[in-house]
Structures are given as C-alpha cells and as structure tokens.
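Protocol step 4 of 5: obtain the predicted structure for the target chain.
Materials: sequence only (see below). No template structures provided, no constraints applied. The aim of this step is simply to have a reference model before the mutagenesis design in step 5. Sequence pasted as it appears in the construct record:
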Amino acid sequence: MRIRPLLGFIAAALMLPAYAQQGGADSAAARDALKKQEGDTDQSTLLKQTLTAVDKQYSLIKRGTIAANYELNYSYVGQERINADISTGQLTLFEINNDSAHQITNTISVDYGVRDNLTASVSLPLVSKYSENPAFDGFSHSLGDIGIGARFQPVEAKRGRPNLTVTSNLRLPTGKSPFKVDANQNLATGSGVPSLTAGVNVNHIVDPVALFGSLNFTYSGAAKDLSQIRGTRVLTRVEPGPSIGFGLGFAYALSYGISTSISIQESISRGTKLYFRDGGSAKTKTQTSGMLNLGIGYRVSPKTTLNITAGIGLTNDSPDFTLGISMPLSF
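Step 4 output (structure tokens):
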C-alpha cells in the first residue's frame, strides 16, 4: 500500500499563507498600513497535519500523544509603483519605485491528543522580514502571531469513503502590529488583530492517489485605541472584514519513498473599515488571493517525511512566490 507515506505530505501541500485582507481606499499610505502581512499562518495552522498518522479508527494522533513539527516558510512580494503628478494639467513628476519584501517564518507547532478523535495544537512563529522601498529599507525580527487550534473528527475513518475533519484556530495578535509601528522605521510581523477561523477538511483515498479539499471562514476582531499617523490623517480604529477560503488538490505516490502533490487555494476578503481622528472613515475594496502549490515529499525514515512545497501567486493580492519546508520533530 503506497498511500501511507504520502499522507503526511498532503498536509504540507495544504500549508498556504494567509493573504492580504486590506486594499487601498483612502491613500497609498493607508493601504500599506492596513495590508495583512504576507506569511500569516491562518491557513497553515488550520490545515496542517489533518491527514497524518493513519489509524484504524481515526486519522488524528492518538489520545495522550504529543507530536511536534517544524516549518520553514519563505515568501516574496514585489511590485512596481508609478508616481505621477498631473494636477497642474501637465506631467510634472514621474518616477517608478520598486517595492520588494522578503519574509522568513520559522514555526514550531505542538499537537496533543486529547482524545483519539480530538487534537489540540499550539504554534509559535518567529518572523524575519526585509523590506526595500522608499519608506523603509531594512530588517525586522520578532515573534509572530501565536495560534491555538483544535481538530475534531466526528466520524471514524473507513477505507472507501471520504474522511471529514472539523477545524478551528484562534490567532492571537502577539506580533508587531502594522497599526502601531512606524512605517518609516520598522516592519510589522503580525496582523494586529485577533481572529477566529473555523472550517472543514475532506480527503478521500483512491490508492495510490489521495484527493483533498477544504472550506473555512475567518472573523477578525477590531484594532482599537490607535494613534497612527498615515499621511495627513491619524488612524484610530480598524475593523477588518470577514473572509472565506477554499482549497482542493491531490497527492500521488510515485514510490514508497517519493510523493508529489498539486493544490490550489483561494480566499476572498471583504473590505476593511478605517476610522480617523478627524471623524472621517473609509472602506477598502474586497480582495481575492489565490495560490498554486507544487510539492514533493521524501520519506527519510518510516516515521519521518521531508516535505517541500513551492507556491506561485495567481492574483495581485497574493505573494509572488512562496517556499515551504516542513518535517516532524522527534524527542
């Protein structure tokens, strides 16, 4: 049976970063402040390891078991911004600014089997970012947003029928908030708001192929009591809109030690409401982000599989390129 070694790899193929929730409605400066940070771990925390550790009854880890996993993720975002001034009726200013951002996230996550069909998890990300743009050119290192999650399998897994897992994840705003840092002196490493994600994952094994899909909904809390200067205005409150995401793909076992996968993920986020000290407000546009992921898994040992996944952004609201490496940790 060749499907067993690729189950751990399927979960890594589903590890996709969460994408920008905010767009531009008031000014370019406001867009930059409200853009959700590339590399956030919403989808990664929600979907990872949902198909691992095959058991006779359940596909989650067994009761009383502790499992740890290490992930290294890299993402790149680049864009060209054209500044032109035609307010006088003539072109008096024209320049092209190249903005680029690199982010490396090291994440250690720990799972605990509360029951055979219920697993609790916590993830600790360490974020390093480098940005090169007219506002700031430099590095930033900090703790990212901590995630606390749970996965529940309501029905026993049986061969020949789809396997359903219910998931939830609470993200705490422990990283540097984009609404509190000085954009000219530092970089944000977190989202700045708490969020709760709930969803379902489904997989179906047709040996040697595993089909999988996911659907989730995210609600974010508001960022209050702000006093951030953005251009000529002072931002005092931010209310992110809800988002919905879905993904699907398949994994194929080439041999007992090598597996490949292809998956696609998309998320749609409603506009964010912005409130300013002068009494004014604005709302950003709805954003759609999508990623195409190609992966390979190498079975290093009977209990260890090294997973490598490369992602290509399909929309303007997605990172241009992502690269992820994950593997279980043994104690």
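Step 4 remarks: The helical segments are 7-13, 28-34, 42-47. Residues 4-223+243-270+283-329 form a domain with the Porin fold (CATH 2.40.160.40).
Proceed to step 5.
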